[in-house]
Amino acid sequence: xxxxxxxxxxxxxxxxxxxxxxxxxxxxxxxxxxxxxxxxxxxxxxxxxxxxxxxxxxxxxxxxxxxxxxxxxxxxxxxxxxxxxxxxxxxxxxxxxxxxxxxxxxxxxxxxxxxxxxxxxxxxxxxxxxxxxxxxxxxxxxxxxxxxxxxxxxxxxxxxxxxxxxxxxxxxxxxxxxxxxxxxxxxxxxxxxxxxxxxxxxxxxxxxxxxxxxxxxxxxxxxxxxxxxxxxxxxxxxxxxxxxxxxxxxxxxxxxxxxxxxxxxxxxxxxxxxxxxxxxxxxxxxxxxxxxxxxxxxxxxxxxxxxxxxxxxxxxxxxxxxxxxxxxxxxxxxxxxxxx
Length: 340
Fold this sequence. Notes:
12 helices, alpha/beta, 434 Repressor (Amino-terminal Domain), six-stranded parallel β-sheet
């Protein structure tokens, strides 16, 4: 009896049968026990060789993101990749890290590994929706999970982990208003339209004027943050929200060079909550992006897609697995009350 006939006998999909015998993937214990009982009753034995080829395959996944010419800018992605590797290891996967200059033009190494059957799937840390679409087009034959820095509508992706910027940014603006700040500026980073839009909505939610909120372009480095804060100070801002922690630390340095005290004269808030931000001077208040949660959701989603792909009848109903991860604000000493 082959897996198709046995799955019909058991009244489950071939993928569920594969999960029961492989010990991987989501399956109710009662269902697993019933499958084992039926297998024993009808003499069904899974094809172990086929399971190794199809179900276990390589147990190797890839993490891909585009890198910057300024290495420190990649600190967030490096921390995220580390968390993904931990989560993948807990599920029995080895993680390969692949980098390229453009999301839509993946590295030759990644393309060779995928073409040669060396990967079970890929997790893409996307920097743009267009780049994610181009990436998916190149890797149609593999399970791919997209980590999106925005609540994108991306039906082309079988697996999608969306980072909800709104929640943490609204908490940050609320904390700033509670400290007496009504004139709040924004320093832009790269591809940060979602963050800026969330900032403007948060201002409106808090009853503050969003139409005249001052903004300056970073977009990348410590030096950019130093320069940008100098552009905002003439607008009489008492606080600045920066698109990244790197820009925020640059802004603190730029304020200090201009004789502006943080937080005495100016409050500064970042986004990312990088691991070293509690140890800066002053410790940086930041909108935290929970990388452990993101990594866990991305690996769990990819694992499920890999398990679904083991179905040998090709009759699995296509579905999209979506996780939304909320950001949250972490208050530290770089945010202080408005002084007269």
